[in-house]
Amino acid sequence: MSRDFREQTVVKARGLTKKFKDFKAVDNLDLSIERGMIYGFLGPNGSGKTTAMRMLTGLLTPSEGSVEVLGLKVPKDAEALKYKIGYMTQTFSLYGDLTVFENLKFVAKIYGLRGSIQKKRIPELLERYELSELKDRFAGKMSGGQRQRLALAAAVIHKPLLLFLDEPTSAVDPESRRNFWEQLFDLSDAGTSIVVSTHFMDEAERCHKIAILEAGRKRADGTPEDLMHAMGANVYEVEGPDLRDMRLKLLALEDVVSAAQLGARLRVLVSRRVHNPEDWLTQRPEVRQATRISKVRPNLEDVFVTSTGEGRQ
């Protein structure tokens, strides 16, 4: 009996490393990505997200380590792999002087889609991604959200088993971002595995699993809920006067991992070394002017803070 599709691994990487002279863009990265899920790389610019993705797609040769994608060894089997994966780059990479229809027809030919298959697939994608009325518009004259939909249509035109998306929503408005993610969940629900990189915390929280990257190294890996549950701090919001001064005083305390102002309150991360942190905070002279102290649910930004930089436990 075959295993459930979510238990089948589509990406395996062990000790994946990429060096550019003396600089390690990706350092000893281990990955295991299961079929059918949306797996996110979360990290700032320069964290190694794009370099890792290019090695997984066969576009870059690793300096060290091993990669297997959809059962194929990369980069050895990169030519065979490209027909099974889709790749949407961070920068719009289609032709601005071709129309929407012409771009899709060109990409279809690259993947060997011709005749009746092409004639059926292109209109199907035009309708699915709301491009039918734009099919004769030059890609260079489209808005960011429209170009994003076109790029996604081109990336999935050959029905790839695995889709790689490198910061796909970095140049679009919030509504386009939200609609784009609904389209990703439609693809995932139909069985497409997706690897997506982002620096948006709210997007990362939509993923089934994420890896937090910093300076080329993986700092955390798991479901957003598991990572929030396992992080080494409790989260409190503090209201009161003189928040800027209160923040500086709190940051000077060894057991305060982070303190950041959000409007009229401070979001304070207290190390789990502290027993009964709410009482501990209430009794601190640094917050004696506080009008309210309340425990709140962690989010992925809190996980990121505790997993990277000085907040790493």
Automatic annotation (TrEMBL):
Residue ranges of domain ABC transporter in the record: 11-240
Keyword annotations: ATP-binding, Nucleotide-binding
Any one GO molecular-function label of the UniProt entry: ATP hydrolysis activity
UniProt cross-references to SMART domains, sorted A to Z: AAA (SM00382)
Origin superkingdom: Bacteria
InterPro entries: AAA+_ATPase, ABC_transporter-like_ATP-bd, ABC_transporter-like_CS, P-loop_NTPase
Protein family (similarity comment): Belongs to the ABC transporter superfamily.
Name of this protein: ABC-2 type transport system ATP-binding protein
